[in-house]
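Dear support,

I submitted the protein below through the web form. The confirmation email said the job was done, but the results page showed an empty box. After a refresh the structure appeared. I'm attaching both so you can tell me whether what I see now is the final result or a partial one.
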Amino acid sequence: MLQNSQVARGESPVAVIGAGIAGAWQALTFARAGHPVTLHERSDKGMRDATSHWAGGMLAPWCEAEVSEPVVSRLGLRALDLWRNALPDTPFNGSLVVAHARDRADYDRFAKMTSGHTRLDAAALAEIEPSLEGRYRDALFYPGEGHVEPRRVLPQLHAEIEAAGGTIRYNSEQQPEDLKGLVIDCRGIAARDKQPALRGVKGEIIIIETDEVQLSRPVRLMHPRWPLYVIPRAENRFMLGATSIEAEDRGVSVRSALELLGAAYAVHPAFAEARILEFGAGLRPAFPDNLPRIAIHGQRIAVNGLYRHGFLLAPALAELTLAYVQRGEIDNEVMQCA
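What the results page shows now:
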């Protein structure tokens, strides 16, 4: 733990490695707390190789309760407030869960395993999403959830870091032992040299464009193998995702592409005429239990294992890291001290 007197005067330098969503939130949180922060990113400003570039950006702690441990929901709920405080324009329009008749059993199970939702009949669904009129007899509506567009929000977070006095260095590949002072390692799967239990879980996405469908919030379609999403983005674009495959290549398989495109068509037939703009995949860093971890080794802190919850959990994990550095507070569910 750093000395409180140093923290109070803002004299303790912090180096963060990795400018994806985890590292960006760590850097922003520490910069706003008065620390001189340098954020190192091995790629260029476009960050096309970063996992965050291929993320969905869903802020959905209630929906994630279906398959995640309670700690994910707990930290996710806290993170919603942090998103609102840092970027007040973050859209919190809620999210929808829908299903066709053949998947009603999965739909009913999803409703029982999650909270924070209301049931909408067909008329109520059409009122909030006119494009879905006549498509479903009902839906689950999670009004407190939100979503961000990763490729737009990451530059915003980077700008906020610099506005708070932090420095960002692109094309700066660093190892924790190469840097002085407090070092926060947010390298994702690249940190496997220090955390060998990490594995990459491939998440594939497709980006399409059409002006024939308008959605104000993510729509999650029940699927027998994966949770499939249609997430609205700017300029009449939609992200289709996301698979979770135990593989570490970055290609999109034919089967995944068919299922993702089929999901879009199932949500609305007009998606059949949409233009495909991009296929891609990112490797989500995950530990064997699929839970995040803050590992503390003196002046070296590793924040990793965010799995598919990166955009949801990153703000809360940054807050926990700062609380440890400033006050020695430990969250036993996610922190490990050497």
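Response: this is the final, complete result; the empty box was a page-load delay. The chain has two domains: 4-64+149-198+288-337, 95-143+199-286.
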